[in-house]
Design goal:
alpha+beta, 233 residues, three-stranded antiparallel β-sheet, binds zinc ion, three-stranded mixed β-sheet
């Protein structure tokens, strides 16, 4: 019956912010109790290998633990469960923390990326890396919210407001004035996981996001952000 739970989970934005998720868990729990489960033949049971590999499944409170973000920002955030094809060619499930009002479109963007079969190494909240963007990038992790400054200059990054996402940093470096982040990263347009003009960029742009590959004077190939209105602070 896990197949049924999975289908229920994918039919709606997968936001683990409270009642809807709890409701889905209840539906799944009830589905497990249905008598029809016992009448299914073994051949009809789902292939467990079709279930995604879970890279992250934590609650929002855990995902924000230890962050220096002020309460007004913490209150504006949601954790979004997303699925993607990783570099092993298998479906994975991870989570990204973004501003609440962006959560639905972020879920839709990741669905577009999965449809395009764009490989993403992993999507894990930065709390797992002790809030170190360097450690998260070195692990080629795709991340959203992190209450931090911009590298190489003063001021908060848009990641600090949950309005930015960095994807596959090792294949998509941040390059500026001869410097690059993360160390050891390399942009090779033919390498898997490299962001090029195409369906990945379109998935963001059509929803009003910017791509750092379009920046002038610097290239932040891994970076997408949503300009404009910020969460109330
Ligand atoms: Zn970024």
């Amino acid at each position: 019956m896990s197949w049924r739970c999975q289908r229920i989970g994918t039919s709606a934005p997968r936001l683990l912010t409270g009642a809807p998720a709890a409701g889905r868990r209840l539906v799944c729990a009830l589905a497990l109790l249905l008598p029809s489960a016992s009448s299914s033949s073994l051949s009809q049971l789902p292939n467990r290998s079709a279930l995604p590999i879970v890279d992250s499944r934590i609650a929002l409170a855990q995902a924000l633990k230890g962050s220096r973000a002020p309460a007004r920002i913490r209150r504006s955030l949601a954790i979004v469960t997303v699925r993607y094809i990783s570099f092993d060619g298998k479906r994975h499930q991870g989570q990204v923390v973004v501003r609440k009002d962006l959560a639905r479109e972020v879920a839709a963007i990741f669905r577009d990326l999965e449809k395009a079969r764009f490989p993403i190494k992993k999507v894990v909240p930065v709390v797992r890396y002790g809030w170190s963007d360097d450690r998260s990038m070195a692990d080629n992790n795709t991340s959203g919210f992190n209450y931090r400054n911009k590298p190489w200059e003063r001021g908060l990054s848009r990641h600090a407001h949950g309005a930015a996402i960095d994807i596959n940093p090792m294949q998509n470096p941040y390059v500026r004035a001869g410097k690059r982040l993360p160390p050891g990263s390399k942009r090779n347009p033919r390498a898997r996981g490299t962001i090029l003009e195409g369906p990945v960029v379109r998935a963001f742009i059509r929803r009003g996001w910017r791509w750092g590959g379009h920046f002038r004077g610097e290239k932040d190939w891994q970076h997408f952000d949503k300009p404009g209105r910020r969460a109330r602070e």
